[in-house]
Amino acid sequence: MPLSSPKNPLVQSIRRAVREGNSTDSGLVVAEGPRLLQEALRPNTKWAVKRILTTAEGGERHAGLLERASAEIIRVSARVFRSLSGTETTQEIITLLEAPRWSWQDMVNSPGVVVVLDGVQDPGNAGTLIRSAEAFGATGVIFLEGCVGIANGKFLRATAGSIFRIPFLEGISRVELASKVARERFPFYALTADGGLPLTEADFSRQCLLAVGSEGQGISREILANAQTVSIPTARVESLNAGVAGSIALFEAARQRSARRKEKP
Q1: In this structure, are 132 and 245 located in the same domain?
Q2: Which CATH number do you get for residue 75?
Q3: Boundary-marking domain end, from 72, 98, 124
Q4: How far apart are CA 195 and CA 180, in angstroms?
Q5: Count of CB atoms within 10 A of residue 140's CB?
Q6: Average pLDDT, the chain
Q7: H or E segment and range at residue 194
Q8: Closest by alpha carbon to 49, among 23, 26, 68?
Q9: How confident is the model at residue 88, as a pLDDT?
Q10: 123-135 vs 242-263: helix axis angle to the nearest 10?
Q11: What is the pLDDT of residue 86?
Q12: Greatest CA separation found in the chain?
């Protein structure tokens, strides 16, 4: 029999997590839809699929996908599932995922750019930055305090699964980050609308950090005090949004690293 009570503790925990954009009471991340489950099952992810909720119809529609997941499958009624979903068009599959515990060392094991999200709260912009971080070879992402959480459903969908394949740290304070940067002596760049170095003059070819600021406030004062500002020259527009600006900077970083590899004998 499918689970049909909306007062079931698991159902209530998932509903609350979806509504608030947080993890469940047991610390699991709620991922909606077959696309995110498919991405979580790829061999190059360290996320663990713990439970899958689906309806009778969803189970039939996604039978092949469900067979690939070595996780507990919980059947729920269509009515209960509709009460859980945070999307208008439900595809009748919800996955509960356990995120890996990454360390600072995981992000700096190989030379590259570590992306720092400084107060980025828009799920779409944050998701775009994660996708670009993966696409252009960033080695990790730091979510400073005040950023959108990784358990936010809109954010997860915007990443299209990239968050499953890149190391990250969440809820890091600006003081803690400044201490790390000072100790490791990595170059630290911060994207601003104008001023500082033109983007192409910054050296992204070695290990460094790149901060992208929030949509409304830009880079915080604490980060500006510890970083070299860089900007993207534009024509006829005052500034670019966080997702676009960060993506352009990451492309430039990838271009520089590629050029440096070609220069080596």
Answers
A1: yes
A2: 3.30.1330.30
A3: 98
A4: 25
A5: 24
A6: 91
A7: none
A8: 68
A9: 63
A10: 10
A11: 67
A12: 67
